[in-house]
Each structure stands twice: as C-alpha cells, then as structure tokens.
Design a protein that fits this description.
Elements: H1 2-8, H2 14-23, E1 27-40, H3 43-52, H4 57-61, H5 65-78, E2 83-84, E3 87-100
Antiparallel strand pairs: 1-3, 2-3
Amino acid sequence: MAAFMRQVFSLHDHRELHDLAESAGLRSVSVETRPLRILLPPPSEFLWQYVTSTPLAGPVGQIDDDARAVLERDVTTAWRPFLEGDALRLDIDAVLTTARK
C-alpha cells in the first residue's frame, strides 16, 4: 500500500516536472501550484469507488458485511467536516504544468 501511495503522489516536485517536460522536447515550460476544490460523490459512494479502484480492494474484499458496515460508518463519520451539501469536498494544492510543443 505504501508503494501505491508513493506512486499516486509522485509527480509533485516542480523542478522534476519542469525537467521532464523539457526532456520531452517541450518549451516554455511553466510549473505552478494552484488551490483546487474538488466536489466528490457523497461519502459512502466515494468510499467504495475509491476502495475498489485501489490496492485496498483485495483486503477490504475479504472482510465480512458487518466489518464493511463498521468501516463505512467510521470513515463517513470522520469525513463529515468535509461535506458540502451531499458532496465530499476535497481542497488540494494542484501542481499544474503547462508547455508548448
């Protein structure tokens, strides 16, 4: 799981992104961080979308229905401060790279 998390968040270094773009033959490369608000599906829906699309699918798929219900309750309760209406709000600093061919 730790390896998965490192991969998901591996492209955040501005210098590395700049160098990758230039080495691909791009010019006028710009890398900046911008605040971004993402509205995700409701918590219980998003939880299972996320779990089934990650390496968590295997281990979580092996737990029984009662344990799955407890997991959902605990996670969605912890996410309540991040609700915006029915949506789960995610505020991030997105790294944006732009360049010309």
